[in-house]
Design a protein that fits this description.
The longest helix is centred in the N-terminal third of the chain and has 16 residues, at 27-42. The relative contact order is 0.27. Helix content is 29%, strand content 19%. The chain is an alpha+beta fold. The two termini are 19 Å apart. It has one domain (5-110). The protein has a 4-stranded mixed beta sheet with strand order 3-2-1-4, with helices on both faces.
Length: 111
């Protein structure tokens, strides 16, 4: 994955808004919703942790937010997205805090 990414923070509290945008055909919203769903689906099978504090996720302890990183330069029909979960405690912080304490990327653009 390219080091330069657009970063989207998707919170569970905003899920309906993101889903509506995805249904309206907004590509970024669809990618972000799919990425969050895939992350949750992987929780029972992988040791996934909060990107900010390292808290372990489980089916009974799901992320309250996701950081979705989409490469700036990518083939629209074939590209990888990196997704990180943010626990309920860390997700209470604002987007800037999550961005500063989550995955590090070169020249990011936060949305």
């Amino acid at each position: 994955m390219s080091d330069e990414c657009h970063i989207y923070i998707v919170r569970r509290a905003d899920q309906e808004e993101w889903m509506a945008k995805a249904k309206e055909g907004e590509g970024i919203a669809a990618v972000c919703m799919r990425a969050g769903g895939e992350f949750v689906k992987d929780i029972p099978n992988e040791s996934l942790r909060c990107t900010c504090c390292d808290a372990l996720f489980s089916p009974s302890n799901l992320p309250d937010a996701f950081i979705v990183m989409i490469p700036v330069e990518h083939d629209p029909s074939n590209f990888d997205v990196q997704t990180q979960g943010v626990c309920s405690k860390c997700s209470k912080n604002d987007d800037r805090w999550i961005f500063d304490n989550g995955p590090k990327r070169e020249s990011p653009s936060i949305h």
